[in-house]
Automatic annotation (TrEMBL), chain A:
This is Rab GDP dissociation inhibitor. One of its GO terms (cellular component) is cytoplasm. GO terms for molecular function: Rab GDP-dissociation inhibitor activity. It comes from the Eukaryota. Belongs to the Rab GDI family. GO terms for biological process: protein transport; small GTPase-mediated signal transduction; vesicle-mediated transport. It holds the Pfam family GDI.
From TrEMBL, chain B:
It is found in: Cell membrane. Residues 186-197 have a biased composition (Low complexity). This is GTP-binding protein of the rab/ypt. It comes from Arthrobotrys oligospora (strain ATCC 24927 / CBS 115.81 / DSM 1491) (Nematode-trapping fungus). Keywords: Cell membrane, GTP-binding, Lipoprotein, Membrane, Nucleotide-binding, Prenylation, Protein transport, Transport. NCBIfam families: small_GTP. Residues 184-216 are annotated as: Disordered. GO terms for cellular component: endosome; plasma membrane. Residues 202-216 have a biased composition (Polar residues).
């Protein structure tokens, strides 16, 4: 491939863009830019791909959560069988990431997808949308039609929900915000619920289980976004049935890996275990190079410091300093990875699912999410399930905030609690040509990640990302 | 995709994923180029844009094996190959350079990695490449055939010394692998699709719900 080519000399030639961090956002952009002919250098300080969204082997999980030298006990020690997501997320089958993947056969060649079996909500003892279902975990009706037909709500409310969902289905975002006498750019979602006279539990269900909001702040915002989210949910369910979600075999980390391969096949250079020491700037303040440190590929154990010339940098938040390039969103997410040797109660022995504990049920402002996957997704051996519980931190005792989730999963064989971590977003100033991505947020899917991809592409390239034009075979 | 497609009861057609591993500059891509296109180029630049190459071997009148050959795309250069690369491989060629002593150690590390992480039934072949250099000038040889052979035997690997330049033993190498593969059963490249495996390219019946048409 590059027989006889000196790797250091190759680095010294410089790059169109240096990408730091191999999270999904960065790897999608690397893949796209490489396909479009840019010379890309992509580095990561970790020894694995995926950054904060990596899928790790059990031995790596023990090292990370239990300290250096910790090793998994017998039964959990077969690394080949484990691919554990640090941040679990699902793909909306009809969402933008799926749309990008449909254009990129070379990525599809490397990742296979599996459906997530169901979408569930928890309800406690008192009333609620599933008033007739009793306390516990209940399957969310998988289509709007099903919801309207379901005997879980009263006959009058059923009719109102049906007219509301029909109105949503009839909305076409491309035709502007005027819709059936409403102005969706102006009218709040609350006023739309009022217009359809939906009851409180129905609003909870629509907002949290279909539009997938994790809190109630959307009620005061214009209804347009909520209409689009409900349409996305319904369209995704309609695609493969069962649930709106699909998930990559061998874990979410397969996605960044597959995009790095797309980039590499189109000439991208990849360096794991590489430290960023410094950014260099030209007189006009724009970035001119980055100083990196890595092991000499020709001499084991010898480390090289090298300034790589580049006019542009794309970095995940952990590679740049707070204040100048990134700020806290103010939100922190707490997560725990639970290893189970049984399916989750109430999920009908499903191999997977998303369980939402609505804030209204947990006496919180933010919902608790549980993502459940299993050997059906090649993430653990047969007979095991992995359930990852997460929520947005509201108190000084974040661990305790996950309790309602843990209770649904008991007995739990092993729990790995991650420290609450800050969510970052970019500061808008990229005049130095250093572009920064957002942290993976607390949502249960990857739509906000593709929003960030589109935003970054636009500010880096000065034009919109043409998803339908991504197919490299078509471009040639 | 990887199922054997029997055109009649007596003929078998099986497809397998093959990956190449080994240090940079040992001639991995050259071996593939020789096998697939019967070419060799001393100063060849990498093939940009190709995810994999394919080549077919007729083992006998009734059995045809098709290799889908995946190259590293350079990601091995800085030890940055994702496990995804070799995870679903049915077979692997681990290459070293018989004129570079250290390259066999790297090859051994790859064999270990494959045996730990890859498909448990993976067929691994060890190829000592650049045989032409040692043939032309025996003093250039850094690794004795007998030593590599002893290691291969102990680790359960197929073994051949090859030259991508002269084509010596290249066809033989791939044929030996083909003979060891289970052509009588499925050689599923990615494991059997699950009951809810998703065909990403299926035209959504309800594409209008997503605001866009078929994206295939």
């Amino acid at each position: 491939m590059d027989d006889g080519q000196d790797p250091i000399k190759d680095l010294e030639k410089g790059f169109d863009v240096v990408v730091m961090g191999t999270g999904l956002t960065e790897t999608i952009l690397s893949g796209v830019m490489s396909v479009q002919g840019k010379r890309v250098l992509h580095i990561d300080s970790n020894s694995y791909y995926g950054g904060e969204g990596a899928s790790l082997k059990m031995s790596q999980i023990y090292e990370k959560f239990r300290g250096d030298g910790s090793k998994p006990p017998a039964g959990l020690d077969k690394d080949r069988d484990w691919n554990i997501d640090l941040i679990p997320k699902f793909l909306m089958a009809g969402g933008e990431l799926a749309r990008i993947l449909r254009q990129l056969k070379q990525v599809q060649d490397n990742v296979q997808f599996q459906q997530i079996a169901g979408s569930y909500v928890f309800r406690g003892s008192g009333g609620g949308f599933f008033g007739l279902g009793g306390s516990g975990v209940h399957k969310v009706p998988s289509t709007a039609l099903e919801a309207a037909k379901s005997n879980l709500i009263g006959i009058m409310e059923k009719g109102r929900l049906k007219s509301f969902l029909e109105s949503v289905a009839a909305y076409d975002d491309a035709k502007g915000p005027q819709h059936q006498g409403m102005n969706l750019e102006k009218d709040s979602m609350k006023s739309v619920y009022d217009k359809f006279s939906l009851e409180e539990p129905t609003r909870d269900f629509v907002g949290h289980a279909m539009a997938l909001y994790s809190d109630d702040s959307y009620l005061e915002l214009p209804a347009r976004q909520t209409f689009n989210k409900i349409k996305l949910y319904a369209g995704s369910v309609a695609m493969y049935g069962k649930s709106p979600y699909i998930y990559p075999l061998y874990g979410l980390g397969e996605l960044p890996s597959a995009f790095t391969r797309l980039s590499a096949v189109h000439g991208g250079t990849y360096m794991l275990n590489t430290e960023v020491l410094d950014f260099e700037h030209a007189d006009d303040g724009k970035v001119s190079g980055v100083k990196i440190k890595f092991e000499n590929p020709r001499k084991d154990g010898e480390y090289v410091d090298l300034v790589v010339k580049t006019g542009r940098v794309l970095a995940s938040p952990n590679y740049v300093a707070e204040g100048k390039k990134k700020k806290r969103t103010g939100q922190q997410v707490v997560r725990a990875i639970c290893v189970l040797n049984h399916p989750v109660k109430g999920t009908d022995n499903s191999d997977s699912g998303q369980i939402i504990i609505p804030q209204s049920e947990a006496n919180r402002k933010n919902d608790i999410y549980i993502a459940v996957i299993s050997s059906a997704h090649n993430v653990c051996p047969k007979g095991y399930w992995i359930a990852i519980v997460s929520t947005i931190v509201e108190t000084q005792n974040p661990q305790h905030e996950l309790k309602a989730g843990f209770e649904l999963l008991e007995p739990i064989e092993e729990t790995f609690l991650a420290k609450p971590f800050d969510l970052w977003e970019q500061l808008d100033d990229a005049s130095d040509n250093v572009f920064v991505s957002k942290s993976l947020d607390a949502s249960s899917h990857l739509e906000t990640c593709t929003d960030d991809v589109k935003h970054l592409y636009k500010i880096m390239e000065g034009k919109d990302l043409d998803i339908d034009g991504l197919n490299p075979d078509r471009a040639e | 995709m990887a199922q054997p497609r029997a055109s009649s009861a007596n003929t078998r057609f099986a497809q397998f994923k093959l990956v190449l591993l080994g240090e940079s500059a040992v001639g991995k891509s050259s071996l593939v180029l020789r096998f697939v296109k019967d070419q060799f180029d001393d100063y060849r630049e990498s093939t940009i844009g190709a995810a994999f190459l394919t080549q077919t071997i007729a083992l006998d009148e009734n059995t045809t094996v098709k290799f889908e050959i995946w190259d590293t795309a350079g990601q091995e250069r800085y030890k940055s190959l994702a496990p995804m690369y070799y995870r679903n491989a049915n077979c692997a060629v681990v290459v070293y350079d018989i004129t570079q002593a250290a390259s066999l150690d790297k090859a051994k590390a790859w064999v270990k990695e494959l045996q730990r992480q890859a498909n448990e039934s993976i067929v691994i072949a060890l190829a000592g490449n650049k045989l032409d250099l040692a043939t032309a000038n025996p003093s250039k040889r850094a690794i004795e055939t007998a030593d590599a052979e002893a290691y291969a035997k102990e680790a359960g690997l197929l073994f051949l010394e090859t030259s991508a330049k002269t084509a010596e033993n290249v066809q033989e190498l791939f044929t030996a692998i083909a003979r060891k593969l289970p052509t009588d059963q499925a050689g599923p490249r990615r494991g059997a699709p699950g009951i809810r495996g998703v065909d990403m390219n299926r035209t959504p019946q309800t594409a209008n719900l997503n605001g866009q048409g078929c994206a295939c």
